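Reviewers of the previous submission asked for a worked example of the structure-prediction workflow described in the proposal, so we include one complete record here. The input consisted solely of the amino acid sequence. No template or homolog information was supplied to the procedure at any stage.
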Amino acid sequence: MGLVFSSFGTFASSHREAPLIANDPLADNTDLYAFRSPDDPNTITIIANYIPGEVPFGGPNYNTFGENIRYEIHIDNNVLTLGDDIVYRFLFTRVNEDPSTFFNIRLGLQNLKATYTCEKSTDGGLTFTAIVTDGPVPPPNIGARSIEGGAGLATTYDALMAAAIVTASSGEKVFCGPVDDPFYVDLGAIFDLGDAPRKSENPRDGLGKYNCHTISLQIPIDMLQKDGLSADDADDILDGDFVIGVWASASRPSMRTLNGDGTESVSGDWIQVSRLGMPLTNEVVIPLGGKDYWNSLTPFTEDPAQYEYFYNPELGLYMDDALFGGAVPQLSRLRIQKNSLGAYGFGNGQDGLYALKGSSAVAGTALDDAIFG
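From that input alone, the workflow returned the following structure tokens.
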């Protein structure tokens, strides 16, 4: 997922999209957002969400970040080098402060209480430095008695959320915790052979009233720009020196052992089990037989054998010009197919779809002269 240091943002989504990760929700990337911060235009906000379909009232074992998982946000800010340039790594631990009760919160104590360490690498992941230790994760909003009552934490949920926004030793603001899932998608319609928008009824928010867990960073632009420059130094909004790529991942140790006393132990190398960058790629572009394999790769080690799924995405076969043509005139002429877009270059410094500017095929779209300028 690419981002220019402008007012525009980029977004992605992926919920339970592959067979293996569907069985490991704590490590499942759901969304990735990157945008210029509306409250501080000198910073970029990056949000990586995990754990799809959380039921907010899901006691007694409420969802939180998993142990033995590396949650990572990766940033590429130099087109001349292959690989990540900046990596933020999060490792969580959980403790039961009151194991004598089945309640999550009681008498000022919390079970399954999570804290985290955030480490930062500026050399592509070769070395890491801790920038947050014992970072707080707010508890789930169980209810008034548990949060506000004297037999609970005797505080407010707003106060717990505010206290979880911390400033890293290197200057970034960090928040990790439960939030309402912000993504809107009609999952039922999409996976009913692409019945979106629904032909017979109104669309439904398939993620409405569900939660997820977010890792949020607010990072000064000069920390992300490869030469330490601020956004004011850019020639224009398409200045290649001010473009970054962002993706997120989760990894687990390769070996998990279930012990006879109810505990578990892990060992072996860290194996990537989930990733998210470009919107909906693994959800609706990669076919079922290739999804787990795609999750194991990085943007720098992708398999060219999977490129065909991008040239002719299956979902496009079920998209109706009569329905989508109103939003995207002459959609069929602009579909992402090898024979229609193969002549356009999208590399750094190339013109992309600019050659279509002024064509009747793009009337009413962002490339229309009346809109593009």
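Residues 157-163 form the longest helix (7 residues). We consider this example representative of the routine output the project will generate in years two and three.
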